Amino acid sequence: MKSKLLYVILFALGLNFSGHAQLNDYKYIIVPKKFAAFKGENRYQTSTLVKYYFTKNGFNTIYDDEMPLDLATNRCLGLVADLLDNSSMFSTNVIITLKDCKNSEVYRTFEGKSKTKDYVDAYKEAIQDAFTSFAGIGYAYEPKETETPKEPIVVSFRDDVKIVEDKEGEKVVEQKATTEEQVYKSVEPKPSNFTKATQTEGGEPISSDLLYAQPIENGYQLVDSSPKVVLKLEETSMENVFLTTYQGNNAVVFSKDGKWILEYLENGNKQQKELNIKF
C-alpha cells in the first residue's frame, strides 16, 4: 500500500510525465480477446474489463479482431495491451503492459492486487487497482506531421474542367485534355452496399467462385480455378487479418462472422467485398 501511495505522489509531482506523454503518440489501444496468460477467450471477463477501463480513461480502444482500415494498414498507430498474471494461492496479482508494433514495451502499470476468493471478482478488483496507474493521465492523441492527411491535388488544363449531368441525372466530369479537344469523361459512382469482389489487384475480374489460398513467404496467394493469382495476402501480427493490394491501393482482408472480407478505400469511401476463400 505504501508503494502505491508513493507512486501516486510521484505522478502528482510530474516525475512520471514523460512515460505518460509518450502514449499520446498512439491512436489506438488494441485489446486481445484472449490474453496469453489464459487458456480461454475473455477468461474471467479480463478482456472486457481491460477494454472498459482503457476506454474509461479516454483511450480509443478496440478488440484485436475489429481493427479499422487505417490501423490494419499501419500497425504502428496502435499499442497492444497485455495482462501479466502473477497470481498466487492467496491473492490475484496482475500487471497491464502496452507494446508497440515492434513488440517493444512502451508502458507498464504497477501490480494490481486482490484477495477476493471469487475469480471473476478478484480479477475485476486487481485490474481496477492496476488501472489507477492511469489516473489523471490526460491522454490526447497527437498525430505526427507525416500522418496528417494532405489536401487533395487538383490538376486543371486551362480551366477547361466542367461538371455536367447525363440523361439519368448522374454527375459526369468532362475534361478537355489537349489542344486537339480530346475529351475524357468520368461518371461519379453512386454509393453501393456490400458486394462480392469483382476485380483483381490488377483490375481484372475476380471470380465469385472459390479462391484457393496457397502458402507463400509471409502469407498466402489466392488463386482461382484457372489457376490464376487473384490477390496476395501478407500476414500481420493479428490473427486472420492480412494486408493486400487492390486496384493499386492498400487494402486489408479479414475474417468476420465466418466470412472473409476485402476492405479498401474507393474515392475516399470505405468499401467491403466478400471473398470465398478456402485455406
How many domains, as an integer? 3
Q: What is the terminal-to-terminal distance?
A: 52 Å
Main beta-sheet strand count, sense and barrel state: 9 strands, mixed
What is the N-to-C succession of helices and strands? HHEHEHEEEEHEEEEEEEEEEEE
Question: Strand-residue fraction?
Answer: 25-35%
CATH architecture of the largest domain: 3-Layer(aba) Sandwich
CATH class bucket of the largest domain:
Alpha Beta
Provide the residue-averaged pLDDT. Answer: 77
The counted number of beta strands is 18
CATH topology of the largest domain: Rossmann fold
Total helices: the number is 5
Specify Rg, calculated over alpha carbons.
25 Å
Given as residue ranges, the uncertain stretches (5+ residues, pLDDT < 50) are 5-18, 148-168, 171-193, 201-205
Order the strands across the largest sheet as they lie in space. 10-17-16-15-14-13-12-11-18
Question: Can you summarize this structure?
Answer:
This protein is of the alpha+beta class.
Give a written overview of the molecule.
The chain is an alpha+beta fold and 279 residues long. It has three domains: 2-143, 3-Layer(aba) Sandwich (Rossmann fold), CATH 3.40.50; 163-190, no CATH class; 195-278, no CATH class. The chain is 16% helix and 35% strand. It has five helices and 18 strands. The protein has helices spanning 2-12, 17-22, 46-56, 69-73, 119-130; strands spanning 28-31, 61-63, 78-85, 92-99, 105-108, 112-114, 161-165, 171-176, 183-187, 195-196, 211-216, 219-223, 229-235, 241-246, 249-256, 259-266, 269-275, 277-278. The strands form three sheets. A nine-stranded mixed β-sheet has the order 10-17-16-15-14-13-12-11-18. Strands 1, 2, 3, 4, 5 and 6 form a six-stranded mixed β-sheet that branches. A three-stranded antiparallel β-sheet has the order 7-8-9, with no helix packed on it. A hairpin with a 2-residue loop joins strand 16 (259-266) and strand 17. Helix 3 (46-56) runs parallel beside helix 5. The longest helix has 12 residues, at 119-130. It starts with a helix and ends with a strand. Mean pLDDT is 77; it is low at 5-18, 148-168, 171-193 and 201-205.
